[in-house]
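Follow-up to my post from last week.
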Amino acid sequence: MKMRMAGNKFEAIYTALKAEITEGVFNDTMLLPTEKLLAERFGTSRNTIRRAIQLLNDEGLVYSVKGRGVVILESTRIDQKFFRIGNFQGLKAMSSAKNVKIQTRVQDFQELTVDEALSSLISFPVGERVYYVRRVRVVNDRAMAYDTSYFKKSIVRNLSENIVKASIYDYIEQTLDFKIAASKVVLEVISATSKDFELLDLSTNNCVGKLVNMVYTDMGRLFEHTTVNYIPNEYALVTFEQKKN
Amino acid sequence: MKMRMAGNKFEAIYTALKAEITEGVFNDTMLLPTEKLLAERFGTSRNTIRRAIQLLNDEGLVYSVKGRGVVILESTRIDQKFFRIGNFQGLKAMSSAKNVKIQTRVQDFQELTVDEALSSLISFPVGERVYYVRRVRVVNDRAMAYDTSYFKKSIVRNLSENIVKASIYDYIEQTLDFKIAASKVVLEVISATSKDFELLDLSTNNCVGKLVNMVYTDMGRLFEHTTVNYIPNEYALVTFEQKKN
DNA sequence: GAGTGGTCTAGACCACGGT
DNA sequence: CCGTGGTCTAGACCACTCC
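User reply:
Got it. Predicted complex:
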């Protein structure tokens, strides 16, 4: 029985082990086989096995204890239910359900120069020319979120309202010559402003979630600062943390 | 010049490189030296260098591009400002400021059995005996958050209100014979309930942040399910994400 | 003391970027 | 094309858990 997954051995091993964990193959001990045994079974070195286990660990399925073994964590409901952040596609990935109608309304689009006040908000240098875009996200006819975005003109050249209406990310990856590498995300709960009441279907709620997303090119340049304000009760974020010692 | 940091080489190298990055040593190219050069400089193998770079990467300081090198990401304000989640101490780590007076009021404490409804909320099996604890967190005389916690009695034996008033985690790590290994965290914004209005100083806000924390022992057993409801405008969470390809 | 995962080495080949 | 980071190997020693 040959398996082929990605070209990488450690990913194939990760996939195989994950399947066996969810099938309950190791339920008697709640421990993975030892790294040595797995190395023999998959015909690889121990380091490659360790990389596969690292992936399981990142996902919160498993936890290694020196001297004992690789412990399988009891599963919970959230393992299936929620999305993980790490999308570079904005809201699309947030509403992972089926049968949703998503519309984007470009509410504002202009070019401006970063001043002191704006610089302190978005970490772009004073004097930088930027495109400013405001987009409202409507899901099943309900205004769920709006984005307030700033793009550096020196990197995202010749942005237009038509491009914004289609997909900025398609434009970046297809027309421009750079790639999106990474992003930093900050998440808060804040009192709604008059702008929030104006743009969102908040019903009786007077607070919003605020997700700040700073995006980098693969040259290490910060080129986008987007703030997503979204309504309560619709979105969740999941992380997994480990104790160091 | 010998440096000594932690016992691990890769952590020492990580610390050294991080300092040099923030000092601006590599500002001319915004690239780290090649892994080969770093291996020679620190007198280690390339794998050890790669582990150090991985730490920088996890922290959002650096991003590797095959064929080009390790790119240093432009720094932003949030690199200094916010905490990273991953505390196992509840709210203490959330208010990282100085001069804050934190009080904990145990508002409810009892022992009960998990029924169907509770089981679907907290992923504990039906019939499990648990301690139920409600604690209100008061920071500078303001009710900022409250915890609703369930602990498995089979693991956290003989919990008492006195222990809860002191520190459950000290009790676990000092008196009981197990360690805390990892936790899964879910974060949402939700409409406030009457309980929220009763317990929190929400002022005019009618929503709360909700942080669900599921905590595991080093045997892989889920033993605690805690929900923290907290007021808007006071807390933030930071993550860092990378594009795979 | 036996066995586990954690760290580390010194090589090798591959895929990709820049020239 | 050369140099880069990405993957992988086959060893070694250490720190820890468990009996």
